[in-house]
Amino acid sequence: MKETDYHTYHRLLMGEAISHSVLPSRIKHSSIFKQLLESGIVEKTKVGRGFCFMVSDTMNYRDFFSTTFPEKDTSISKSGNIRQFRDSKARKVATEAVFFLRGFSAIRLEDQTLDLGHYTQNFGLFAVKSPSLETKKICFVENLHPFLMAENLLGNDYVYIHKYGRIGAKSIKPFKLGEALVFVDYDFNGLDEYLRIKSVFPQAQLYIPENFETLFERFAKSLKGNKAVASAQVKSSLLPEVVKIRNLVERHHRFLEQEILFHD
Q1: How far apart are CA 114 and CA 126, in angstroms?
Q2: Which of 24, 48, 69 is the last residue of a domain?
Q3: Which superkingdom heads the taxonomic lineage of this protein's source (predicted)?
């Protein structure tokens, strides 16, 4: 998206009402904005003789914003938020990327060898911020609970990694990786995360279980809020694995959580 798009969506995030005449036509007629309206995350309200747009579902809009602009650079401090809004979470702040790691082999971290197996077996995980990481076989896991038991599904050969918050390309560019697997929810947000990772590591593959269609038919849940909004890159992707999941989600308006893969 363009810089003006970011500023417009950010104004909505800050609670502003934007009049119909002021909202850029490019945004007004975009599929993303239409989906925000259709899902009730943004509402169109009559004001006097005109209309304005404002956020009606703050939680899901924040999720949408962080997914669409995962690592937009800002210089906003928490103390500044408190002074201006009396709320340290009122708007996005610049933070360092925090990653959780699990695995059963040694890795290179900040040019040092780390026995990741020791930390996994004794403490459950290893946490590090903004790392320079090198490993031969890695699996990105979107959600925390599946991350904590991923080896039960995918084995002990991978280094499993989970980021606190959405993954952006900037945070993983310092990594040096061999094989890369991406294990996410089978929805628009998961596909968006996969495409962001693949933009940095073209060798990355999306994990899709062999019985995916059966699992989807039995356990798929209705799309709600932010999960019903597909990013521009998800909608335009021609990758077969993305097209497969996207079409299924769009057709049934349902998605499959990665947690279901751990159920018998």
Answers
A1: 10
A2: 69
A3: Bacteria
